[in-house]
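Interim report, section 4.2 (structural modelling).
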Amino acid sequence: MSSRFRAVSAALIAMVALPSCDRETRENRGKPLPESVPGIVGDPRAAEYEGNAFHIAQGQRYYVWMNCNGCHAHGGGGMGPPLMDAEWRYGGSMEQIVDTIREGRPNGMPSFDQKLSEQQMWQLAAFVRTLSAQPRQDALPGRADEMSNIEPRTLDERRPVERTSPAADQARPR
Amino acid sequence: MARTAAGNSRTLPWLRLATAAAFLFAPTAAGSQARAVPAASASPPDDGQWVMPAKNYASTRYSALSQINRQNVTKLKPVVNVATGHKRGHEAAPLVVGSTMYIVTPFPNNVFALDLTKPGAPVKWAFKPRPRRAAQGVACCDIVNRGAAYANGRIFFNTLDGQTIALDAATGKEVWRTLLGNINKGETITMAPLVADGKVLVGNSGGEFGVRGWLTALDAGSGRIVWKAYSTGPDKDVLIGPAFKPFYPMDQGKDLGVKSWPPDQWKIGGGTVWGWISYDPKLKMVYYGTGNPGPWNPEQRPGDNKWTTGIFARDIATGQARWFYQSSPHDLYDHDDINESILLDMPVNGRVRPVLVRPGRNGFMYVIDRVTGQVYSADPYGFINSAKGVDLRTGRLIPVKEKEPKMGRVIRNICPAAPGAKDWNPSAFSPRTGLLYVPHINLCMDMGTMEANYIAGTPYIGADVKMYAGPGGHRGVFTAWDPVRRRKAFEIKEDLPLWSGALATAGDLVFYGTMDGWLKAIDAASGKLLWRIRLASGIIGQPVSYRGPDGRQYIAVMSGVGGWAGAIVSAGLDPRDPTAALGFVNAVRDLPGRTKAEGRLYVFALPRR
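Predicted structure of the assembly:
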């Protein structure tokens, strides 16, 4: 083996070896968790979308378009849990609802990631919140995307008509 | 009184004349056999066991045991009362084989074998199939299971996430499992399989998800698929060949499963097979109904939507279709045709015919020739204002124009409602009275339709529904129907919808349960209430009767409210929304105050002498 070849080899080895000295940095203890996980609570978008008339109206549209009503009906539930009561399996904040829509949930809620844009998910969450919360009446859409609730003619005895819009619910003692 | 309910004979005067003429001129064989009897080959002598939910292939749900009778039924007492550990709807029938009872729970579909030789029926073995949890989100109308089936030392059952599993009945060890359904498309399985001719027959659920319906036959030994017949699509997928001879021209033609749909709509067209299957061992034919077309909104699927909402007769060996009859062509109201078919031999127009009798979802009691598929009669057994009758010349249902759903509008007062005059819960037939005992419902609905978007794995419905009590204000009816005379023998009005099966016994008793938890025994001849007991939860299960290892007669039933009708309790739905649970919640808003969610197995017996 020639000395020239030996010199070239040494140079090559040095070229490869030198950057290797710059080892990756590791934090042995991991990064400390912040008080609240970003994106889950305290997202500034929550305040932007919630209670906003335009966003709620858009969300109401997507609620039917994306077949949310197929499982959750108009808040009363069915194959999926009700959305108009005070119980939330996976949390009822704007951020948590968006998370549920985006990621899905293990007991059957499908993921709508790739099917809705980020903005649409926030708009949908804004509408879902109006089903159970007490939204500002001036922010609610005047349009109903469900059939009106009038008394059927075949009933012999009258039953009290249950109001289904959150606005009407405001008048009820809770 | 049933005759006045819907205008069948009023609107078809020629029909009444024709029937009268047939009775006048036909040879009077009716004298020799005035009563219907179960098809002999499909209803062997009772051995005291209960090996399939329908009792036998003729689906009579009749026990020939007579120790418990009209005189002593008042002494009936619970002898077993055990919790199943699950709180959703318990629709399954307990099975009894030898000295062991087998039960299947709702999701997660655990199977228990109970030793009947010991007091309190302790658990012999338990099997947990661990189905995928996500299946719960695509199960329309609660996460129920309608029971298992026993044959040749094996227990066969289906899981909500689309599997069929065979267990060794003695040990509970898994023999095979076959995955048949895809929950990502909304496909689940809730029905009880039928085992016949060495095959396990299984169909899918998911008609509210744009699933394509099918019935498949698995080899009972290996779990391998022998044949699979789709309910929509080209003839080769539906297993329609040269042997296919439907009786009516409306069901004849090539590739109707494609041509009676808008382009490609058949691929997501429904027609699921989630109900009951009957089998005639002599003719080697299986009979089953197909579910609703998808979506519910009918304006998105112009055409007859073959082969949904109809009944198929197939050769069991090959699956090849023999005949088909579509009871609701272009279904308008989710009137699935999955209800039970009871195989009877009875006089029709003076001659004894092999027939199948089925209380249809659309409110008509069909008597159909099980060889040819000819409809002999279709009489209303509940209140109907959505159809004028069935034209027996063409076989077609005659819809009422004003009740047809229109997009963007709400059509009010449609009777019967989406669950029909009767839903899945099966009837019983007693050869002693010749009567069919039908537990059913009296509900009407408002229906508003809109365009549905197909998104795989989400509901494909396009309708808002609100149900309420029909005329009379009662929501349930128990009808004893005389199939030969084509009229009601008696009826019992029930406040709540009836969602339990019926059981008839040779003690001339008929058992059924109510959604507020009463198990009742009535006189099979008069309908008089003889005995009742309040159970822990509403009853939507199927009562059965068997001879125990000690030789005594027992009655067993599962209690556990739920299903489509009871989802308001089992799933905790909010009654303020009338459209909840696809509109059923509005009809049963009082249910949460009258029963609670719980799952228990009860067994009743007379006191030991």
